[in-house]
Amino acid sequence: MTRLHAANELLAKEVIARYPVKKSALIPLLHLVQEQNGYVTNEGMSHLAELLDITSAEVLGTCSFYEMFKLEPVGRYVINVCGTMSCQLLGADELIHHAEERLGIKVGATTDDGLFTLERAECQAACTEAPCLQVNYRHEFRVTHDNFDSLVDRLTADSKKNGSAAIPPHGTLSQTRQQIPAGRAVGAVAPDEVNGPPVWLPIDEPEETS
Amino acid sequence: MTDTANEQAEAPPGISFTINGATVEANPGELLIDAAERHGVYIPRFCYHPRMKSVGMCRMCLVDVDRGRGARLEPACMITAAPDMIVDTESDQTQRAQEGILDLLLVNHPLDCPVCDKGGECPLQDQTVAYGPGESRFVEEKRHYEKPIPISDLVYLDRERCILCDRCTRFASDVAGDPLIHFIDRGNETQVNTFPDEPFSSYFSGNTVQICPVGALTAEPYRFKARPWDLAENESTAVVDSTGARVVLQSSRDELVRVLGVDSDAVNWSWLSDKERFTYEANGSEERLTDPLVRSESGEFATARWADAAAFAAEALQADPSLIGVIGGARLPVEGQFMWSTLLDALGVRDADPQIGDGLETELIQSLPRATIAEAAAPGGVVVLLSGDLKEELPTLYLRLRHAAVEDGASLIEMTARATGLSRFAKAKLHALPGTIDDVAEAVAAGTTSETVGGVDAAELAMAAKLLGSGRPVTVVIGRTNLAEDPGLITKAAAAIHRLVPEAKFLPALRRGNIHGAIETGLARGRTTTEILEDAAAGEVETLVLLGADPLADFPDRALVSSAFDMVENLVAVDTFATASSARADVILPAASFGEVDGSFVNLERRISPLRAKVTAPGQGRADWMIAAELAAALDHDLNVTSLDEVRTLLSSTMPAFADIDWSNIDAGGDGPLLGATNAVTPSLADIAAATSVAVPAVDGYGLRLVVDRKLWDLGTMVQQSQSLAHLAADTTLALSPADFDALGVQDGSTITVTGPGGATAELEVSASAGVPRGVAHVPYRMNGFDVGTFLSASTAVIDVRVNAG
Amino acid sequence: MTLGGKEIERAAGFVANDTPKIVTSRFDVEDSHTLVGYLATGGYEGIRAALKKKPEEVHAQITEATVLGRGGAGFPAGVKWGFMPKDVWPRYLVVNGDESEPGTYKDRLLMELDPHQLIEGCLIASYAVGLSRCFLYVRGEMAVAQERIAAALNDAYEAGYVGRNILGTDFSLDIVLHWGAGAYVVGEETALIESLEGNRGMPRLKPPYFPAAIGLYGKPTIVNNVETLANLPWIATNGAEAYRAIGTETSPGTRMVAVSGHVKRPGVYEIINGTTTFRDLIFGDDYCGGMREGRTLKAFVPGGGSAPWFLPDQLDLPFEASQVGPAGSMLGSGAIMVMDDTTDIPKAAHSLTRFYAHESCGKCVPCREGGTWLERILGRIVDGHGTTRDLEMLLEVGETICPGEFPHAASERLGLEAKPFPYGMTTICFVGPSAFAPVHSALTLFPEEFRDRVREVSDDDPVASPVGAVPVELKGIGAS
User: Fold this and answer.
1) Does the beta carbon of A144 lie under 8 angstroms from any beta carbon of chain B?
2) What's the gap in Å between the CA of B422 and the closest CA on chain C?
3) What is residue A107's three-state secondary structure?
4) ipTM
5) CA A15 to CA B538: how far, in whole Å?
6) Residue B59 is nearest to which of C366, C371, C376, comparing CB atoms?
7) Domains within chain B, CATH numbers bracketed
8) pLDDT tens digits for range B442-459
9) Are residues C316 and C423 in the same domain?
10) In this predicted model, what pLDDT tens digit does every residue of C329-371 receive, in sequence order?
11) In this complex, do C369 and B105 lie within 8 Å of one another by their Cβ atoms?
12) Rounded CA gap, B269 and B50, in Å?
């Protein structure tokens, strides 16, 4: 069963209600599917298609455009090593090579124990801290080969602990969710059902333009 | 979009600009690529298609545009001409851009032209020759994909050939509304594909093949059948339904091999349903009748000479004309219909009905003020859908109305029996419980919209009343919402709407091909098929003629047809295929089919267009007009016609509607004119409605009211005789509102027992459908597994069934 | 400081100095990202001031201040808002927090370290133009920024700064946090809108050039960069006059610049707009403090990965668009990448071209096919398998993406005059040209590094025969 669980389906409906047009919720909901399953499953995509009243092909079209969405299972920790210019200038290629040797896998592969997937990534917006990498989209800065080794050790140890590890398994991004209290929400209205300016704007003199 | 542009074509003032040194005028809003082409300058393109929104993706149409600040490359499919703009489509910079783009397109395009179906008619091939660098300079490995994969039962996709122009995907999403193929992945890895295990099962899939600018999409029925240079073609009209979409018939070695859509501004905008596109396959079916057949003494059919078979049939027609009934005729070209009509006149036969109990009364159709498709689909109009599901029954008309609702601000009011392909766009959904559509329409007309009527929410009634009272032009698409319901209710509903909006016009959604040709030529006369069959069953018909009709499979009361056939003395069939009904005939005369004879067609707008012969009929099949003429001769009523031209001359001089038709112009193609006024005197819609009485029984507390309607892929003759389509007809299932599931104790996907009137039962799979109103059981007509026609009765207004679990 | 149990390096990369601060003033304040910390440092004073004025007065104030868009195009925010048609409703605000231009990371810091400042900027903009729905689109790969903004929004909703009847007035605004999922091109504002609609993030066609008239759901929409909006609370509090007093006439205020690469102290700096020079930034003691020990400057990218490169010749240019453009490059998103004399130029160029080829959305042919072609040829050259024909091919493919002469810097060493911005393009957006920019800069400014690396082939070589190929002048190659 890799559709959204009941609790996540409720959450999905709450997210959908924030948008004037349902399909806008697609990317956040694909993240939710990925959070639940570690990757985006076909059943999950079909479930979103139902919730958003679009076709599964449309869901896949959007999903496959964005590289954070994985259509196959990946490791608990996805390690993205940045290879774009600033990092490249400061040793990204060597770091990637070291990572391959340390983990015993090539870029794009997952370790046999299912813990690590290694990827070469493009710019992670931390260029002054080169070379950098991300573990499940959390930065590590100015990574030396020794840093990398201890990171792998730390993550391996974390994965054996029960309860909250510093870095959640792949799929979970923000651990804080936005909550809009019902009493405070303005509410989303379909774009075609809004015909005038909001109340705080002074009403313009009627000006027939069309 | 484009039709507005065309309207504006007649309206000066235009926008003056310069192209390749010449000063020309563009229409306001006209894209540069169109304006240029209108003035004889062709700008190469791949992604641009005049019937779809520009996407500007291929960049092939980049041309030098100087707006006073120097020449810059701009995409001609994205910009409109502006005053004083100077355009150069032949400048060095333009040519270098064209060469460069083609070079880039060939980077990943395989060089398999010799084995590609598109070779010889390929825009990429042609434009590379005309504008390209001549040879690909790319020496890296090309993109590789698994070679053609089936993306549906009818279409194959070769992703290596695809240049990602977005035509097929845009068509699927924007035109057909079936976004089942999509761009997948990103950048240089982008491909077109479906979701895993969800095929591109669109009724319009063949259009993607027609508009693909390379050989990436191919249609199963045409793959490797012919080469473009071997093809001969004629422009004709699709006959599978009454929309009358314009087509090109292509043949190779006297065999139809392909049908393409023609861009008729009035009708189909170049699009076709897959039924219109692929049923040409039926022409070559093994079930085609090739020789006249006469039933021998022993009861077996024996091949006969024409003259003998005609004499046999003529003898049957010598019966007392009041004891002769004719059923069918919508398959025939106008000329055949007219000659049969003339023959019946000569014989004094009073009763003929080209509809088979699944349409509306001829008198009603004749009484309606008629709309054209363009009027129905006009921007900002209100369209009432008092019909079946147009996506299933008249798919090309569906495309036009969908476009009107999505792009042109038309508002749809749905008065169908359940949700349809257009429900998503409907502003008001009035899915009345069977037997109540007249009450629902009355409530809207009277403005009594404060409470639920016929299961329709008050809010929906009020919205419908508001739209109908808005002063916007109203078109009513009128047809059968439910084959299990007395059509008199539709008459009453139509009259109520007409009373509210006297200016409303009507577009009849009768499904059968040339049904309007039959009505206009006088072939529809006297009693209805239901009445003829009732008379026959009562022993009051001696000779029954079936003109391309198969009532045993088609008429929504199987039992009545069977007993009628048992009782008549002579059953004469004129047909193209062996059918269940013709198998019961005493004599069968083989007719020539679509693409085998010249003639003409009248569509649901009363627009006349050509039917053209492209191949010869198999065996001894003959044109219908000749068959009628031959029978007339055998009956000593020589009709004095020996050619199609003579038939047409006679038609124009006999029938006022055809008086002004310039036949040579019809054959030349184009949109074709609307028929003129008739001098038929018919009662008004209000009078017809007043004279119609329907007794609807009260809802039985334990039963469900039956809704029966059609699917595009069914067990109908044309679909079943086309080998690529036959298997597309699904199994019969019964759909219920999810709200009824618990009360009935059934589960989605389980097998239930349904009990019809008279206690007949059937076991069917049940499915939940939010589009089915509460208290309704929906069963599609003529699908595999169970024939719901056995539940139908021509003598009751509605049908109640019971559903039990297990 | 911890978040979710993990120690967060505070302001990694941010370097405080003594220059005036507008948007980074709280970066060295403890708990700057919390509502308590924000209120303690003058937070939400800007919206209080704005709410005392009429919306059009606030709009006029922002227009007068001239806040140049910080996303890359540098278009003034107030003017951009004014492009919205007068009587079409609803309107939407979309915050572009999809920062991913190579070399750039100011927005991430603004979102992580001062999320309330951004929220307040959204409030001011929304109040001024009359909209009640704002979408804050944060790049997918920024989990910490997402957490900080989510927490800040939750607090701000509870405290009445966001939502219905803000601060007891009629003004009501929902701010919806939305995450991306990994696509550089979504930083382009029309692609951002497509993405926010749940679609593939492919840029829409121009015209229209701005989504102000036809944007999200086809309605008038403002798309503003995070840093742009972060300026608004300060302006609302201190006035347009005070803002214009900093910087130059054409480039008022400050801006954030990330300097990375081979410098002593790489970091993100808030600099005075228009007057600070590249030399100040790379060599100044307040900034990067010069090159790594014992190394000399070879070249630098002045405005994010898409910008044509500069040489030491251009060091004294100020951070001012009107001077950088004529010199052959652009300021873009505020990111400088510095290369010293150890740099393998073709390889460095390849790391950028690979980025843009990888990030092509695939919509238009020159970018989709051309970008990949460039990347493959360049990769072959870097790996030592290139030929002299490949060098020609690079420029020919580039010519198809960017017809005409491509901008480049002047070089005394090569005897090269500057070719000013901008360039011609056959693509819909700037991703395609951006793939070519590093190729062109590297080939033009360092031809010898390529020539030494490729095998000579003659025209008779059978590998490829460019029939009808466009003759392209090989600038710089063989000139030295």
Assistant:
1) no
2) 22
3) coil
4) 0.94
5) 66
6) C366
7) 2-90 (3.10.20.740), 293-359+515-659 (3.40.50.740), 363-508 (3.40.228.10), 704-805 (2.40.40.20)
8) 999 999 989 999 999 999
9) no
10) 999 888 999 999 999 999 999 999 999 999 999 999 999 999 9
11) yes
12) 10
